[in-house]
Every structure is written in C-alpha cells, then in structure tokens.
Amino acid sequence: MEVNISKRSWILLWICLILLNVIMRIPLTPHEIGHDSFLIHFVADSISTYGHAKWWIHPLSIVGLYPFSMASALPFYLSGISQVLPLAMEQAIWVALLSIGIFSSFTAYLMAGAIKDDKIFKFITALAYSTSMGILVQTTWSASGRGLFLVSYRCYHHLKWPIVLELQTVWPMTSQEPAGSFLRFYRE
Question: What is the distance between the alpha carbons of residues 148 and 45, in angstroms, rounded to a whole number?
C-alpha cells in the first residue's frame, strides 16, 4: 500500500524527527557520563594540545589492537570539532554526539531501504532506531566508540551490499560475512 505524502509534509516530518533527536539528547547532567567518556576527553585534549597521538607506539595502536592502546577515530573527531569550532572539549563532545545521533536516523533510513522500499516504513524505522534507548544512551554524554560504531555500521553495511552481490556473481563461494565464508569452507 503506497501512501502519497506531499514533499512539504515529508520535509516537515524530517524536521520534526531531527528536532525530536535534538530534544531527546539535551543533557540532564552537567558533564559527560562514564569512564570511557573521561578517558576519550583526556585523549582528545592531548591531541589538541600536542598535535599528534602520543600513544601511537606501533601501527596496530591506530586501530586499538596493540596492548594498552585504543581506537583513534573518536578522539581525532572530537579534537577536530573542538579546534574547528571555538568550543571547549566538553561542548565539542556534546556537539559531536548530537551530530552522530542525528546521523543515526539517516543511516537507519538507508538500511531500512534494503529491507523494504516504502517511504513510511523507512521513516518509522529511522524514528524507532534513532530514538531507541540503546542509541540514546550511547550518543548522549557518553563519548565511547560504541555509539560511533552503532551508527556508522549501518552505513558500512549499506555500502557493502552492492560489492558483495557483485563478488557473488564472480565467485559464488563468497559469503556476506567473513565468519560465514569460514564456516562454508570448513563444512566442505
């Protein structure tokens, strides 16, 4: 069943969704919450102060696979926001997490399109995903890499589908996930 919604109403719905995301992410506490948040706050301040990541002692340190290291995407993102915008790191964390939270509705909309090509279904999925408790907890005053991963994974998964489908036509043994192809080879 296709519902016709005017372009003006559609834009108004998206504006309301974005405003709802902003309102739900207004902080109730004066500072960030959680051990990860304070650690990433400190590390991002270190990047802003020294201009480089002082904890990179091995190439695996960049992605957090070396002992006593951490993934560097979120600290660099926060440091960049605090340098580009004239904000303290605490306000930069709130702005960054707010933008990640709003971005979650767009990534959920894209992924819902892979399930069913219906505008209403995709919009309801974006609303449910971006205002779900798990996404709200990870994108409101909690500067950990989990929120960034939860939001960006949808985008990665959406971009991966055409590549996987093309690989399956060239090499039929290719699975959608590495674990799936391992199990497929193990079974044979």
Answer: 19
